[in-house]
Amino acid sequence: MSRITIIGAGAWGTGLAIVLGRGGRHEISLWVHETEVVESISSRRVNELFLPGQIIPHSVIPTHDLADALAGAGIVVSVMPSQHCRRLFEKMHPYLRSDMLIVSATKGLEEKTLMRMTAVIADVVNGKQGGVRIGALSGPSFAREVARGDPTAITMASKDCELAETVQREFSDPRFRVYTNDDVVGVELGGALKNIIAIAAGVCDGLGLGHNSIAALITRGLAEITRLVVACGGRQETMSGLAGLGDLVLTCTGGLSRNRSVGVELGQGRKLAEIIAGMRGAVAEGVFTTGAAVELAHREGIEMPITEQMHAILHQGKSPREAIHDLMTRSAKSETAFSS
Description:
With 340 residues, the chain is of the alpha/beta class.
């Protein structure tokens, strides 16, 4: 039986633990930040704080100790919030081995450096002898639906074909299908940037706008995500796949989307600080990613009007209704012009 370590026991980390722990194929070590979550899983086999109602297999062993969590692991899956990634990998560094495969399942950008998560991890651990092999896992995957066994398809991205195929083999089962992709830039940026568009979709819903508005927003959101992906070295066709269009549609329309929910409340007039305070420790990555995305777009010379308006709402106090008005009254463009 192989050992897989998951770092982070929020909803998505717990959902992955349930998937990988079912059927007894793997022993799963789940590193948990919150002591009450360790107690909840150990005594009741449920993560009451982040994923209530979903039974966690006995093959999943929770721990608050990083050294214990990483001991003997062949695959390490990082599922922490993006802004904690560097700090946690600095703590994990002494316990990592060069033969481990590292899978980043966090969808975000580091605010200060604008780095994707695999780049952050590589920046911290590259000193390991022989280097550490890293890939990114992304795609349309609400944790609650994954945990209850709804059919789900995601993408494992890495330039290392052997790593991608190993993860595909070890993670796949009849209810969780893993595809492979070598476009790490596209897969990671698609997963990070769609959260911003989901906030915008929620704003439209909160303002009482209809399906026309959401459809236009998703379509034009995909266009601006694709522009930035290509400018950063990713491939346009990746944005037509699971980590692009698939994840974007899910996050913009699904009721389980935290980013969309933040947007809904913003559209209804609530303040961001009040919304975040009510999330009980859960994270809407798009709130952090928006600022980094605006900076990255400026650096690459890419126009991202939806992202810029969401940044203005989230961080500059702009009213949601004014932001939507400004999007609709921009100068006329050609739909097919890639720079529009």
